[in-house]
Design goal:
Two copies of one chain form a homodimer.
Chain A: E1 7-13, H1 21-37, E2 42-44, H2 58-64, H3 71-83, E3 86-94, E4 100-108, E5 111-117, E6 138-141, E7 144-148, H4 157-165, E8 170-174, H5 189-201, E9 204-208, E10 224-226, E11 232-234, E12 243-249, H6 277-286
Parallel strand pairs in A: 1-2, 2-3, 7-8, 8-9
Antiparallel strand pairs in A: 1-12, 3-4, 4-5, 6-7, 9-10, 10-11
Helix pairs in contact in A: 1-3
């Protein structure tokens, strides 16, 4: 796993406790420090790492929400400054218009560099959150270009394509993957999709899942880091429990999209054929009465 | 693997010999008969099953090409009529304008129901073939709605999405997958991408690869049939050699796109956000001078 040209990426598969904001911030901080001690420069935490996930309703989420410059992201900024690192993690956001968002922040020593709001909501999240409507930001950090999305977003290859087209070298994705049945000798569909996202875009993908039952719901604990050929570089941990996963990634390798002498996974796309979308958009633009 | 509501699908991983049209047609016919004897009703052959793959140049391909109603597809129609089956297989086509195509046919007792022309060409294929520019046809057969694409097409999730949106229940894909290195305990990226294509669309995907070295090139021999959760139902064969893979698929299950009480993998798409494409198309439509 060690790569002399690589930057060490860590996924901290922690166990947030529902509603315990301070304790969860402390758990996250300790995991980040542990990852840094082992050389990590890019550290990823799960989705909704500060609040927990299993909100009964929007009121409960509102009581645990914070603005994009609240104590959770500001705590991460302090850690990023102290250690000269990048942190990506999920938190329950209340935006400037008072709407609840399932968000992830990317912070580095400069401060909060990006807030991403989950655009594809899972199950009862739609009763709590307003979905985002902006594509994943691609942030130029000291270590490379990093994009952020959250959990179910990863199941839409059109969405993952956008940061790849915008030059992302690493996609960092906080997740809370509900437990699923897996066939013997195989991995969960969630992990398969991450691997495919990595190789169809030749972009590294690091997903940080959570662990620990919450209000009767269990999780895959399937954190994984996938390489440019779609291989699992590390993860998921066999027992799905507490873990920090490390991989040394030479992110510049993601700039080369070749898969043969003549093939390039992005240049070989034929977007002019990928409508009906385009066709429909053109039609409605040409015929405003239609 | 047996499903009382299922239709038996077979992938015939055969060994075509370069340039031996008659012998390859015979090999294909024998494999189809063997699959039918074991109950298959949908039978898939590899890419370029009649001609072989390793053309030195376009002239060599031209000498092995045939029209869409040539001896290869007509042989398949005879077998389809005799046994009441669907056959999908690849052949080297010369179209009505004299252009060479890397094509696949879907035939059933009614005749040739669809000709699909590979739209994403691999490596030196671009020196031989003209890429297709039509989306995968979705054919309503006696057994279900079946779509066809070929090999490298599968690496473009936008392309696979089109037949899923058009209602395909099974994607049948002839392939010739060049050999690759695979990490211990993992499967080739080619297989990972097939599994992801299946689950992000909740559409069965059956890929028929070839086996047997040809002009120094070896193949994965990675034929695989993937289920709606992205699991490998069968394949790839461990030794990558001659094999017929069977799976009984209840194709109607693919009509249900739900993955939770509130989530549907197609309805949850947010295509209005998946531009730049759409944005660009709209702009150019609104401003013809632009």
């Amino acid at each position: 796993m060690w790569d002399p040209d690589g930057v060490r990426v860590a996924c901290c598969q922690i166990h947030p406790r529902f509603g315990e904001l301070d304790a969860n911030r402390e758990t996250g901080a300790r995991a980040i420090e542990a990852a840094v001690e082992r050389g990590a420069r890019i550290v990823i935490l799960p989705e909704l790492a500060s609040s927990g996930y299993m909100f009964r309703d929007a009121d409960e989420a509102r009581a645990l929400a914070e603005p994009d410059d609240g104590p959770t992201t500001q705590g991460w900024v302090q850690l990023a400054r102290r250690h000269g690192i990048v942190i990506v993690g999920g938190f329950c956001e209340i935006d400037a218009d008072g709407r609840l968002r399932n968000s992830a922040a990317l912070v580095d020593p400069e401060g909060v560099r990006a807030i991403y709001r989950k655009a594809h909501l899972w199950d009862r999240e739609s009763e709590v959150f307003v979905p985002g409507d902006r594509p994943p930001a691609v942030v130029d950090t000291e270590f490379g270009r990093i994009a952020v999305m959250v959990c179910y977003d990863l199941e839409f290859p059109e969405w993952v394509r956008l940061p790849a087209l915008a030059g992302a070298q690493l996609l960092a994705a906080p997740a809370n993957w509900p437990a699923v049945q897996v066939q013997p000798g195989q991995v969960a569909g969630e992990v398969v999709r991450v691997q495919a996202n990595a190789c169809v875009n030749r972009m590294f993908v690091a997903v940080c899942d959570r662990t620990g039952a919450e209000r009767g719901v269990d999780w895959i604990g399937g954190s994984v880091i996938a390489g440019l050929d779609g291989e699992r570089l590390i993860g998921p941990p066999e027992d799905g429990g507490l873990a920090i996963l490390f991989a040394d990634l030479d992110l510049a390798q993601a700039d080369d999209k070749h898969v043969s002498e003549r093939n390039d996974v992005l240049a070989d796309r034929r977007p002019e054929l990928y409508g009906p979308l385009v066709a429909e958009a053109l039609l409605s633009a040409r015929d405003p009465a239609g």
